[in-house]
């Protein structure tokens, strides 16, 4: 049963009841993640008032200059999740190593990978940012998980989701039975089901890519974008529109709502690092959501969720969204 207006908590409990194969004991963990996201929504919303804009003095493991809010939102996630007994360990964009659970607290059977603040270059200009998360099972018998226990294919994910802190705060969730969208009702402090069973149209005439990197792209990407830009008189015989939010959560939300293709391809500038977006806490959870909504997600050369990860901060090229467009750009790579 999925009724518009249902709270996210009721929705999760009922999903577990109706699907006997649903992972058990997820409700508690998801409630912890949801509490953290509500706290982050509040911090992001009030960041100017609280003096939280601008950069910190540190870099993260990927060499990015951290925003103050990158660090604070990471802390919120850890503080909401390390003591509740649902997790065995965590991996975050902002922390070099695996985040272990203190001996003072019980350990749970899940692992969590997260990007606490996605699109953080947007935070000082009042555009959408978000939080992305992916839930994996902790391998049996492992008391203190380390790097290698997180190196599971995206197909092993139990649950994935993201929150967008935009004009509305929204939560998008999949546990492998479709994709559902919830809107935070600030008056009651709960996420309510507003977008049941989200489906991505197979066709689209809207693409998202950072065009300023055009000179670094590989030939298949250049060809695909050239053909889109030629419009109605070119190969594709139709006009295309372009959007670039520089915030993957906002792009994926748009694609879930009206279709589209999002690309952060491999390019000569970032080839050595394997791409821009991170596999465990950006590409895999977004791929799970996109596929569950009927879309496709690929590196251009393989299905993202079938990549065997080699390190926790590994990066990959990403092409995701409406089936027919993603399949077209993938075919150009062959
Ligand atoms: P993050 O803010 O978590 O580091 O991620 C930013 C990502 C993604 O959200 C977005 O699609 C992309 O980086 C934007 O990159 P450019 O600034 O190169 O356009
Ligand atoms: Mn970052
Ligand atoms: Mn990100
Ligand atoms: Mn981030």
UniProtKB/TrEMBL annotation:
CDD domains: FBPase. PROSITE patterns: FBPASE. Keywords: Carbohydrate metabolism, Cytoplasm, Hydrolase, Magnesium, Metal-binding. Residues 8-196 form the Fructose-1-6-bisphosphatase class I N-terminal domain. Its cofactor is Mg(2+). Signal peptide: none annotated. The keyword Hydrolase applies. Mg(2+) 2 binds at residues 115, 118, 282. It catalyses: beta-D-fructose 1,6-bisphosphate + H2O = beta-D-fructose 6-phosphate + phosphate. Mg(2+) 1 binds at residues 93, 115, 117. It is found in: Cytoplasm. Pfam families: FBPase, FBPase_C. It comes from the Bacteria. Its EC number is 3.1.3.11. It is an enzyme of class 3 (hydrolase). Substrate binds at residues 118-121, 210, 276. Binds 2 magnesium ions per subunit. Homotetramer. This is Fructose-1,6-bisphosphatase class 1. It comes from Methylophaga sulfidovorans.
């Amino acid at each position: 049963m999925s009724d518009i207006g249902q709270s996210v908590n009721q929705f999760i409990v009922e999903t577990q009841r109706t699907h006997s194969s649903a992972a058990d004991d997820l409700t508690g963990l998801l409630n912890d993640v949801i509490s953290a996201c509500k706290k982050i929504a509040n911090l992001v919303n009030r960041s100017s008032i609280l003096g939280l804009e601008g950069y910190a003095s540190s870099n993260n493991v990927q060499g990015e200059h951290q925003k103050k809010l990158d660090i604070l939102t990471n802390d919120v996630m850890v503080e909401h999740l390390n003591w509740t007994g649902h997790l065995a360990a965590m991996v975050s964009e902002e922390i070099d190593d695996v985040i272990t659970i203190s001996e003072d607290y019980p350990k749970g059977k899940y692992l969590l990978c997260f990007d606490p603040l996605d699109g953080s270059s947007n935070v000082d200009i009042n555009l959408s940012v978000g939080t992305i998360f992916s839930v994996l099972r902790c391998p049996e018998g492992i008391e203190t998980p380390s790097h290698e226990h997180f190196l599971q294919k995206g197909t092993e994910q139990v649950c994935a989701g993201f929150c967008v802190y935009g004009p509305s705060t929204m939560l998008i969730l999949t546990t492998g039975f479709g994709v559902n969208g919830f809107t935070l009702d600030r008056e009651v402090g709960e996420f309510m089901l507003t977008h049941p069973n989200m489906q991505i149209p197979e066709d689209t005439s809207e693409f998202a890519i950072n065009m300023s990197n055009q000179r670094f792209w590989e030939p298949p990407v250049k060809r695909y974008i050239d053909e889109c830009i030629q419009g109605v008189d070119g190969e594709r015989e139709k006009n295309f529109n372009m959007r670039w939010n520089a915030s993957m959560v906002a792009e994926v939300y748009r694609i879930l709502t009206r279709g589209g293709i999002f690309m952060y391809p491999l390019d000569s500038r970032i080839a050595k690092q394997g791409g821009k977006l991170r596999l465990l806490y950006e590409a895999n959870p977004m791929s799970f959501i996109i596929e569950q909504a009927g879309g496709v997600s690929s590196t251009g050369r393989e299905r993202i969720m079938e990549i065997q990860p080699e390190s926790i901060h590994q990066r990959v090229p990403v092409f995701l969204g409406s089936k027919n467009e993603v399949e077209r750009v993938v075919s150009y790579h062959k």
